[in-house]
Each structure stands twice: as C-alpha cells, then as structure tokens.
Amino acid sequence: MELRQLRYFLTVAEEASFTRAAARLHVAQPGVSAQIRSLERELGQPLLDRSARAVRLTEAGAAVLPYARAALAAVEDVRTAVDELTGLLRGKVAVGMVAGSAALGVPEVLAAFHDAHPGVEVTLTEADTDPMLDALRAGRLDVAIAAFAGAAPDGIETRTLSDQPLVAAVGEGDPLAGRRGVTLAELGDRALIGMRPGTAMRAILDAACAAEGVAPRIAFEAGNPQVLGDLAARGLGVAILPESTARARPDLRVVPVTVPPMRGRVALAWRAEGPNGPAARAFIEHARARLATPPE
C-alpha cells in the first residue's frame, strides 16, 4: 500500500469524480484509476462505486476513508516536525474568494505571504460563497474570502473585512441620478442589474424585495460587481452594488436605498476546528493582520 494510492483515493472521494480528481492532482486520469484499482486489489474490496454518474464510496470505501485521511495527515505531521526543527514552513494552502474581493487587498496579501514563505504552495480559486463554505467544511479549501447575507453557518469562523450598504447605481443620464435616496418599491418598475442567484448579494436583494412585497425585474445578471457597474454606466438599468464599489467609479451616480436599508458583509472564513496544517494556520494569521478591515 502506497501513500500515493491513499492520496488518489481520498481526492476522488472528495471530488466524486475521477476527472476532477485528476485535474486537482495534476496527473492523467488513467493513472489515478490504475492506482486506485491496485489499492482495491490489495484490500480485496471495491472502494468506489463507479456505476453512477457521480463516483460514490462503497461500504468498504467509507470505512477506509478516515484511515486514509489520518495516514496522510500523519505523514504531513512528520514533514512539519522536521521543518519546524530547521525553521522552514512548507505545505499547501488553498484559498477561495468571491468575485470583487481582490479590491480588499487579496493579491498583495498573497504576494507578501509568498515572499515570507516561499516553500508554501498557495492556490487561489474564485467561486460563490455557498460552494466555498462546502469546500471549507470538506477540507478542499483552507480559507475563503466570502460574502454573507447573515451570520456564518455553524462550524465556520469569520473575521469581517467589509460591512457596507448596498446602493442603487445608475449612469449619469438616468432619471435617478442626483436623487438623495430611493426606496426599493420605487425601483419595482425599473430594470435591475444584480448578481446572479446563489450569491450573497443576490440573497440580500431577494430577501429585501420579499419583505417589501416587491417583484423585482432583474434584466441583467452577472457574477462580478464590476460587470454590473459597466452595464449601469451604459444606461441599461439600475445596478445594486456595494457602496464602495459604486463610489469608486466616476461613471456611476450613487443613490442610497433608504427603505429597506440593505447591507453586505465580506469576511475571512475558515473552519472553526482549525485549518489542516501549520502553513494554513500561518496564512490565516497573515491574512487577518494584513487584509482591509471596516472603519470604526
């Protein structure tokens, strides 16, 4: 039994797919399949059910999974113990972030961490909050910069990086330009430009509309706040944006939404039980110290 076989098995189990596992491991899919078959022959039991579209654990696979995870963690602990003696920090840190959060200083934080710890491999992916939280809980991500419509779910610790109103943003020639405020009800007959469903900002907007009895007319959806601003600047509707994003653009006019007020929060998030290893712990402390924080 080889550690490589256990690592491949664990990755396929987490991804529920040989294809995604191979991409994550940066190896060819046939190699992943061959190693897992070799492990199954050695154990005398199939560990994965390949009959469905998504790969699933068999009963034997579910029994083996925690031991495979523990064995790989023990090997990492051995490496860590030696690195600590020699003053080195090694390992991997998987970071996720929602679109638009780079403005909080994420690239600078990543660069500074790399300079301080060149032996640590850091990866960054962009995704919506819900799949990132699932990845955090499953151990596929170590830390995430996520947007929240409310409190963080159980098992997730957060540190708020930004907490600000969501506003209406329009182009210079829009009838709302120059208004000191607008209610959500007044926007009911306007073409709205909002984040796609599944994002925290869209959840905030949908909840506010439901509370006010407003049926919003979402004319355009996107996954990046800057794209929403581009559309609004060209007169295609009213974008719902974080205030700082809207005010940073000279081609937009900001109109506060007075009733009901809406706020969005972006936070650094990690597992409450702690990250997988010392590299991830070091990154979280580094990010907490360096990322932007909301004004008092």
Automatic annotation (TrEMBL):
Domain of life: Bacteria
GO molecular function: DNA binding; DNA-binding transcription factor activity
GO cellular component: cytosol
Keywords noted in UniProt: DNA-binding, Transcription, Transcription regulation
HTH lysR-type domain span: 1-58
PROSITE patterns: HTH_LYSR
Membership in a protein family: Belongs to the LysR transcriptional regulatory family.
Annotated protein name in UniProt: LysR family transcriptional regulator
